[in-house]
Amino acid sequence: MTSRAGRTYTLLLGIGVAGFLIWIATRVGTETTWRYWAVLGILAGAGLALALTQRTAYGAWSEVTPLGFALAFVVAVVCAVWIAIVGQPHPNWFRDHVTSWSNDMGIRGFVDHMTRYVDVFAFGLGALLASAPGAFGREAPTPADAAARKGPAPDAPTRATTNGSDAPPPRPGVREREQRV
Q1: pTM of this prediction?
Q2: Are 40 and 84 in contact (CB under 8 A)?
Q3: Are 57 and 109 in contact (CB under 8 A)?
Q4: For the packed helices 118-129 and 33-58, what is the interaxial angle rounded to 10 degrees?
Q5: What is the CA 146 to chain-centroid distance, rounded?
Q6: Is the dihedral of CA 120, 122, 127, 132 positive or negative?
Q7: Tell me, what DSSP letter sits at residue 121?
Q8: What is the DSSP letter of 155?
Q9: Cα(20)–Cα(40) distance, rounded to whole angstroms?
């Protein structure tokens, strides 16, 4: 199987898993508060499944910094959870307080409009979680890494003769990898 075919099958798997989880979410319903949160959790899982398969298929693990991920994650969680709490089907202590705070800050109309799309926020939050491995040091191996593990080819020069030292050659950065593709 070629690399391109492997990517295609990986993406199809991610789309299939995400679609299946979305279908399950439609079967749960949102009549009660716990079902509402269960649907949002399932949709977040669907977003995570889809985004993870795309990241693994294209090897883009090292593009996110820990600070960038933390900032994006905190902002996204605060916004998505705020909107999700206001959108709960039955009033409770949390919903009453967050709704009151929204009113005090003058964002109540915006939050009320966004509750219609809370499912999209949950899906996007799951997709954002797919950035976590790259933010914390997980990096997909490149073809050059795989070749280096196998050792030099019989006719290939060793590292010492290539650059004059025993130090390994510098690893290409993200921009250099993008230019090669």
Answers
A1: 0.61
A2: yes
A3: no
A4: 40
A5: 25
A6: positive
A7: H
A8: T
A9: 14
What token pair was written down for 117? 């799309």
- H helix runs in the chain, sequence order: 3-28, 33-58, 66-86, 93-105, 108-114, 118-129, 132-135, 143-150, 159-163, 174-180
Give the whole-angstrom CA distance, residue 117 versus residue 57: 29
C-alpha 144/C-alpha 174 separation (Å) is 14
Identify the pLDDT of residue 175: 55
In sequence order, the 6+-apart residues with CB closer than 8 A to the CB of 165 are 159
Q: How far apart are CA 71 and CA 40, in angstroms?
A: 22
Overall residue count recorded for the chain in this entry: 181
- The percentage of residues in the chain with a pLDDT greater than 90, rounded to a whole number, is 21
Helix (H) or strand (E) holding 171: none
CB 76, CB 132: distance < 8 Å: no
Q: What's the whole-number average pLDDT of the chain? A: 76
Structure tokens at 98: 């967050």
Average pLDDT for residues 68-92, to the nearest whole number? 87
Over 50: is that where the pLDDT of 1 sits?
Answer: no
111-145 residue pLDDT tens? 998 888 888 888 888 888 876 765 555 555 555 55
pLDDT for residue 174 is more than 50: yes
